[in-house]
Amino acid sequence: MTVRSCPGCGLVELGRYQHRCDECRLARQRAAWRRKYKPVRSRKQHIVSAPGSSDLQRFMDKVRVPSGRGCWLWLGALSMGQSGYGQFRTRTGAHMAHRWLWERQHGAVPDGLQLDHLCRVTRCVNPEHLEPVTPAENDRRARAKARSHDGQVVVRV
């Protein structure tokens, strides 16, 4: 009978159908889980504003504004999950970036309404591309056009 050892730690006498000891097997599973679900952050430069800047100046430092009337793409933090909406932190807490700028220019969004991205780009914070609509209308529009995180509009047929 052949004596088998764990390739990870060298432990001798593995079971008949065992390829690694339990500790090495669990360590490999945890590492695989981290690679799959917690990807390594890219080495993006963090956008840092000057100390004492106003909230609006800090906000605009995180926005790429093209010439013309295109989308103002949010370059700061994005919300968790698949939504891809920008997040902006102030002393009062975290806010959705597009909503924060809208409320700063137009006041609070009326009760029962949501802000709809007319351009269908979730990272866009351009107030001209936002419209308060009912949740039903927002859902209807979302079904008509697929949302995009980076400006690529996909039309569903």
Question: How are the SSEs placed, and which strands pair?
Answer:
Layout: H1 22-37, H2 55-61, E1 63-64, E2 73-74, E3 87-90, E4 93-96, H3 97-106, E5 114-117, E6 130-133, H4 135-144, E7 145-146, E8 154-155
Antiparallel strand pairs: 1-2, 3-4, 5-6, 7-8
Could you explain the architecture of this structure?
By secondary structure, the protein is of the alpha+beta class. The protein has 2 domains: 1-40, no CATH class; 55-155, Homing Intron 3 (I-Ppo) Encoded Endonuclease, Chain A (Alpha-Beta Complex). Helix content is 27%, strand content 15%. The protein is built from 4 helices and 8 strands; from the N terminus they run ααββββαββαββ. The strands form 4 sheets. The protein has a two-stranded antiparallel sheet with strand order 1-2. Strands 3-4 form a two-stranded antiparallel ribbon. The protein has a two-stranded antiparallel sheet with strand order 5-6. The longest helix has 16 residues, at 22-37. The N and C termini lie far apart (64 Å). The model has no long low-confidence stretch (mean pLDDT 79).
Describe the sheet with the most strands. 2 strands, antiparallel
How large is the count of helical segments?
4
**Level-2 CATH architecture of the largest domain:** Alpha-Beta Complex
Looking at the structure, the CATH topology of the largest domain is Homing Intron 3 (I-Ppo) Encoded Endonuclease, Chain A
3D shape: elongated
Distance between the termini: 64 Å
Instruction: Output the CATH class name of the largest domain.
Output: Alpha Beta
Strand content: 15-25%
Number of strands: 8
Query: Strands of the largest sheet, in order across it?
Result: 1-2
